[in-house]
Amino acid sequence: MDITTMVFVLALGNLALCAALFFFEFGSARSPALSTWAIARQCQAAGWLLLYFRGTGVAPDLVSIPLGYTLLFTGVALEAGSLWEAAGRARWRRFIYPALGVAVAAFLACYFIDQLGLRVVASSLILGGFYMAGAVALALGWKGGSMLRRFMVVALAMLSLLVAARGILVLSMPGGWGWLSNSLVQALSSGAFVLLMLLTAFGYLLLAREQLQREIERMEVVDTLTDAPNRRGFFNLLAPWMALARRPGLPTAVVLLDLDQFKRINDSYGHPAGDAVVRAMVDTCKRQLRDSDILGRMAGVEFALLLPRTDLLDALLVAERIRRAIEAAPVKTERALVKMTASFGVTTIRPEDTTVSLFKRADEALRAAKAGGRNKVVQAVTPVAPEAWVTPAS
């Protein structure tokens, strides 16, 4: 593939990607990272088109080359910025924009000094540097990243070095180095450009889809209001402790808690106030728990606590501490200062328990706390052993 055809392919490829992305995202809100990435692709498409039309009379070299490379540098820099944005580094503009300004100024200086040699050096080093910045942004999530992310990091880094190698070779050894001639490096660098376009395009979209899939999976087990496990998530976390209860060892306690007369808050102050109360209650509970303890939202304002390696007496103390903390911490909403109380039912996991029997027992204790006047902690009734049913002989 000659250089003119390659530039045309890069231009059309970016234009096609921009069009597909526009219609895919039409009418929906974009994330900041995706918006930046879309602008980056538009800049790259415009830059490649200008470079394709140079010397054809459509756009004179004096305009097409400086402006084309400026747009190309801007597109690659913004593409790196979108990866930093996706990595949670929202201040990337403080570094990318000044680097882009220096890069454009350096290229224009090289272009007007020497229209061939220095231009090749500058463009290769600038593009390779910005692509490497994108690889570094992806590498921030290496430890907990997927195989796709790790592949993207390695591939981007290698291709970035290959792009920059052309400029380094021209700068250090203008005549080439043995079998590694300038023409071979130019061919490899051109191929790297095409691969980078494909890799950053499809790789970025696949990474976005992977992140969206993770978010969907997280929403299946996490309550969006409180960021605590929902019913399904809590049962998933409870399952191994149910199995461990069948073995000798320290007991595990389960506590059900329910906010008292919560309906009056929604009726009197509105649902936003109710949501604020729920979030505040969850924060209050978490401050009283260990890192190993788990708080889950079962339904409405009913929550469950899983207290690993905690016997019944200690669980009662934990529940009482949380009850007092909730009572002593009124929640300030937009319309009122709301004081809340909660009722608790406490039990421990028994070897013969299923989730049904466990929660039935805890729920009965919770109902007893409600019936006893609310704002109470009640332990589940311990069944009498069968041998105790026999009346001792007199």
Automatic annotation (TrEMBL):
It holds the Pfam family GGDEF. The chain crosses the membrane at residues 64-83, 95-114, 120-140, 152-172, 184-207. It catalyses: 2 GTP = 3',3'-c-di-GMP + 2 diphosphate. GO terms for biological process: cell adhesion involved in single-species biofilm formation; negative regulation of bacterial-type flagellum-dependent cell motility. GO terms for cellular component: plasma membrane. GO terms for molecular function: diguanylate cyclase activity. Residues 250-382 form the GGDEF domain. Keywords: Membrane, Transmembrane, Transmembrane helix. This is diguanylate cyclase.
